[in-house]
Every structure is written in C-alpha cells, then in structure tokens.
Amino acid sequence: MHAFFKDHDFQFSVEGVLGSAYARAADVGEVLTTVDRIPNGSAPAWVAQWTATADRVAAEARSAEEAGHVRSAAARWLRASSYYSEAADKAEAVESALGLWERHRSSWDRFVDLTAATGDVAAERVEIPYEGTTLPGYFFRGGPPDEARRTIVHTNGSDGSVTGAWTRCIADALARGWNALTYDGPGQNAALMRQGLPFRPDWENVLTPVLDVLTKRTDVDPGRIAVMGISQGGYWVPRAAAHEHRIAAAVADPGVVDVSTTMLEQLPHFLVRLLDAGDRRRFDTDMAWALKVSPATRRMLSWRMRPYGLTSPFDFFTAAREYALTDEQLAAISCPMLITDPEDEQFWPGQSARMAAALTCPVTLLRFTAEEGADAHCEPAATGLRGERVFDWLDEQVPA
User: Fold this and answer.
1) Co-location of 21 and 76 in the same domain
2) Secondary element (H or E) of residue 213
3) Are residues 156 and 88 in the same domain?
4) Is 2 a member of any domain?
5) pLDDT tens track for 127-163
6) Lowest mean pLDDT segment, chosen from 4-13, 249-258, 301-310, 335-344
7) Considering the domain boundaries, does residue 1 fall inside one?
8) Residues 221 and 364 in one domain
9) Would residue 167 count as lying in a domain?
10) Contacts (Cβ under 8 Å, ≥6 apart) of 270
C-alpha cells in the first residue's frame, strides 16, 4: 500500500481516515490535501492541519444550513467531526485534546440532529441508566416507530471516535435495514471526557444496562439484537457475552483475549520482574527515569493511562492484566460469534485465532489480507469490504 508517512502511527491513521470515505465520513480530496501539508512524524503539524481542514468544512456546513441545504450540511458536519477527531488524537496537551474532542462531538451532534430533520433516518440521542448516572448513546432507525426490527449495538474500543461508529457499523446497518445503537461506555468519549468514568474489565455491567434500554423499545425486536466490538471492544464484547445471554450474535474485530500483552511487550524484562514482584515504588521510579529520555513515550503512556483513571505506571500495567478472558469465560458464550483475523494485526497478533479455538459456541474466523488492502488492525483502509463480509454474516445469523 502507498506509504504517506514513514511514521507507522501516522500511516495507520491516514489509512483509517481514507477508509472512512466509504461511509462519507471523509472526502478523499480533503484527506489528501491535508496529509500533503504534514511533515512526517510532526504531531503539531498533524493537529494544526487537520484542525484547519475541519474548521473549513464546519464553516461550509454552517453556510449550507443557512441556505436551507440540510442534507449537505449534515454531510459536512459528519466530515468535520471526523477531521476534528483526527486532530484531537495527536494533541499533546490534555486541554487542547479536550477542546478538539468537544468540537468533534458538537459536529457529530449537529450531524445527528440534521439527519433526523431530513426524515430519511430516525436519529436520536439516548441516555442509558448506569450506576447512579447515565451513559450517552445514539439510536438510529430506518423504519417506522411501531415496527420491531433487528438491532445492532456498536461497542467502541479504547480510543475510537463516535464518528468511527458510523463508519464501521451504523452506515452499513441502516443500509441493510437494521436499527443501530452506539454508546459511550466507561473510559470512552463523553463518559471519560465529561463524566470522568474510567474503564472497567467486567463489561457485562455496562452492556446489560444497554440491552435493558433496547428491549423496552417498541421499535426493537428483543430476540434479534446483535453486538459488535471494535479494537479493545474485541475484549469487552466477548466478556459481556459470557454473562449476558440476550445477544443473538456477536462480532469481535479483532478477537482480544488479553489486552495487556501489547503493553507488556514494550517493557524491558527488569521492569516486568518488578511488576511481577509487586514492587510499585521501584517500578515507578525506574519508569520515570526511562521516560525522561523519551518525551514521546511519556506522552503516549500518559494518554494510555487516562481512560483507566490512573497516574501510576505500576497501577496501569497491573490493571491492564485484569483485562483478560479465561477459557471458562469463553466457553460460557452461547451466541454465534464472528471474529475478524486481519493479516499484520499489530496490537494483538494471534489472539483472534486463540479466541476462536477456545470458544464452544458456533464461531467464524474471518481472514482479511494485505493483497485485498484489508490488513492491519480493524482493516482501516477496507471499510467497504469489511462491512460487506461482516454484515453478510450478521444477515445470516439474524435474518430480516
């Protein structure tokens, strides 16, 4: 595949935003001209240029609204939301990242509201009761309000944007006659940014309230609810499915058996030994010295720890080990499961096949390859092919 950047993270991000053009969450020309203005590996330039593109598209969205072109305005707000999210992802200061995230979210909310106003699709904001508070979500329906339809629930990963839910699930679902719901779980998007709720490993305590809300709706068939988990959601969805048996079918993209492996592999052996020994003081002290020589690693670690609600590296790596599925939990899953298995999976290589082998429910291991342009984590540049294959399988498991 053409390399836009030598920096692997930048290249992966570009492939992802190009892939989102399939669902109209980006426009190829806007992406290419933005990328062309960014030097390799320059996070400040990345933030500045994606912000500039997002600001321009947002201004055009406002102009379309003023002229009464509701559909064009909605389309532009969707793209602006996507571009603001790209800028927020590499903002070095927390305050800057939060401000850009808020612009991403407000653009998305405007897209949702205008989409509802067109009458083409019912789109509404929902609140999911959760442990004394609520989790924000969005429900989309393409049919009449009194028709109980099959519904898919999209569960994001550790840092996926709400616009990504549209690209990787909602747009395809609506095209095939599904309802679709996406929500912010603890540690994700608004639940983290506005409410300060951290991640938790026992996702059944998150997904069950979501299903409780859905099964009470007259436009949802409670016997035909599927669930999709993206990235780290490939751990959370199987974990929840081991306990929550109202799920008709589940997708893990990819399968994640142990979240901590990708983190622990980056630690020197002496730090792993300190972690195993429970020596918090020495671990954090030695880690602090190591981070002094690498500001980029320090920023990355701080960013990774934030959704866990932790500031101590020892506590973070210790907590990450709790995000692992046992053979007993995998054996408790009863619904059919689809697990994607992309070639060159860079975060959890081999874990999709490992999960499939441990399951006792009906399981499909779906391979994606570099030859198809569909390799790497969550198949970033092959949104169309991925959606076709995943939703073909879902259509077979949960017929219309």
Assistant:
1) yes
2) helix 204-215
3) no
4) no
5) 999 999 999 999 999 888 989 999 999 999 999 999 9
6) 301-310
7) no
8) yes
9) yes
10) 286
pLDDT at 301: 87
Angle subtended at Cα 331 by Cα 328 and Cα 337, rounded to the nearest 5 degrees? 140
- The torsion region of residue 344 among left (phi > 0), alpha (psi -120 to 50) and beta comes to left
Question: Among 344, 398, 377, which residue's Cα sits nearest to residue 255?
Answer: 377
Number of neighbours of residue 65 by Cβ within 10 angstroms: 17
Residue 269 contacts residue 364 (beta carbons within 8 Å): no
Q: What is the 3-state secondary structure (H, E, C) of 35-62?
A: HCCCCCCCHHHHHHHHHHHHHHHHHHHH
Structure tokens at 105: 């979210």
Q: How many domains does the chain have?
A: 3
Instruction: Using the structure block, give the residue that is written with the tokens 């859905």.
Output: 214
The rounded distance, in Å, linking the Cα atoms of 250 and 366 is 13
Q: CB of 240 within 8 A of CB of 206?
A: yes
SS3 assignment, position 131: coil
Question: Are 277 and 252 in a shared domain?
Answer: no
Q: Number of H helices and number of E strands within the chain?
A: 18, 8
Q: Is 349 helix (H, G, I), strand (E, B) or coil?
A: coil
Percent of the chain at pLDDT above 70? 100
Quick one: which H or E segment has residue 384?
helix 383-397
* Mean pLDDT, residues 265-281 taken together: 94
Residue 157: domain span: 121-259+323-400
User: Residue 87's domain is classified under what CATH number?
Assistant: 1.20.1440.110
Span 213-228, pLDDT tens digits: 999 999 999 999 999 9
336 HSE (CA, 13 A, CB side): 15
Same domain, 207 and 344: yes
Check whether residue 132 and residue 47 sit in a common domain: no
For tokens 């599904």, the residue is 178
**Together in a domain, 349 and 372:** yes
